[in-house]
Amino acid sequence: MKYSWLEDLTDLNKELDERILEANEDTTLIKWSKLIPELMMTDILMVAQDSGAKNSVGEDIVNVLLIQKDGKSIIPFFTSPERIKAMVTPEHNKFDILRVNTARFFKSIKGKPAVLNPLSPYTRVFTPFETKILCAEYIDKVPPLENVQPAVSEENS
């Protein structure tokens, strides 16, 4: 099933992506330090699957996609559907996409390592320490949720 809001994601973070490329080329890391506040306030996409179970307060439990890097699990997140395509293979082409604010995403992964846009030039790894610190710094600045976006099943050929 495909919801109309997914089609609106085509241009999601297009300008941010351009600035990520510039920041990745900056050896001083000054551009990344200026980009972090914008990234933390923007919506990103994550790949997940509904587990069919509920937690103690009745909320659905979602299993987040993990990838392996240097023998350790790391959680990928993406600035746009274009970046997710790097993860699609003929064997793995069905997934659920969740749209969430970056600070909320970092809060939900509870200090685990994360990688922005893996397998692309728009990538950056966030250490567990960074995800904790950035979440703590920005979570109170995130606007309240107006409504929760439904998970979207996406199928690519």
Biggest β-sheet description? 4 strands, antiparallel
Label the overall shape.
globular
- Tell how many strands the DSSP assignment holds: 8
Average of per-residue pLDDT values: 81
Helix content: 25-40%
Sketch the topology as an H/E string, one letter per element.
Answer: HHHEEEEHEHEEHE
The Rg value, from CA coordinates, equals 15 Å
In CATH terms, what is the architecture? 3-Layer(aba) Sandwich
Percent of residues in beta strands? 25-35%
Structure description:
Helix 2 packs antiparallel against helix 3 (30-41) and helix 5 (102-108) packs across helix 6 (128-138). The two termini are 15 Å apart. This protein has 157 residues and is of the alpha+beta class. It has a single domain (4-143), classed as Trna Endonuclease, Chain: A, domain 1 (3-Layer(aba) Sandwich), CATH 3.40.1350.90. The longest helix has 12 residues, at 14-25. It is globular. The protein is 32% helix and 28% strand. The protein has a 4-stranded antiparallel β-sheet with strand order 2-1-5-8.
Feature tags:
Trna Endonuclease, Chain: A, domain 1, 157 residues, alpha+beta
Detail the topology: elements first, then pairings.
Layout: H1 4-7, H2 14-25, H3 30-41, E1 43-54, E2 60-64, E3 67-69, E4 72-77, H4 81-84, E5 94-101, H5 102-108, E6 114-116, E7 124-126, H6 128-138, E8 152-155
Parallel strand pairs: 4-6
Antiparallel strand pairs: 1-2, 1-5, 3-4, 5-8, 6-7
Helix pairs in contact: 2-3, 5-6
Summarize this entry quickly.
With 157 residues, the chain is of the alpha+beta class. It is 32% helix and 28% strand.
